[in-house]
Input
Amino acid sequence: MCGRFTLRDSKRVQNEYGVKIDSNYNLVPGQEILVVSKKIEMMKWSFSPSWLNKPMNLINARSETLHEKPSFKGAKRCVIPADGWYEWHRKDNKKQPYFFHNRDEVFLFAGIYKKYNNENGCALITKEANNHLQKVHHRMPVLLKYEQARDWLNGGDLFQSDLSNEIEYYPVSNFVNNPTNNSINCVAELAKS
Output
């Protein structure tokens, strides 16, 4: 599951997409995030099937059931620029946050979106983590390189990008646990003891 991510390189986002954003070290569900589909827009990170009376507020959709679950029927495809994400590893009764990144390069999450109550909302597509990353968490977002985005947007199921093998990670402090914290301290590597 991916419940937090970063998009810190505001200069690259402006150059690539023509959109001005603030650097963000702690994007959380329910916030407006940058989404690219047929157009570039800010969209709520919260997906709900249009037929529900009350919102479901999904933030992730499993790649394995994307084509089976009624919740995702009629969903449109999108990509979500990011340059890192967080996962929490549970050991004993403690949860240690880790920051995952590709040498701070911007990449894309595969996503879906749909309109609910006249507002578009999106979810990140997840898959089983590869051997390297599952030491921390059993799920991970589906990552795409820029050249793979068009295939994803046109309906190709690209759930196994080589980019997953290039991801590095390290432990960070519990500072990131507070969704109101949004600074470089969120991604600061914990000193090894």
About this structure: DSSP finds two helices and 13 strands in the chain. The first strand starts at residue 4 and ends at 7.
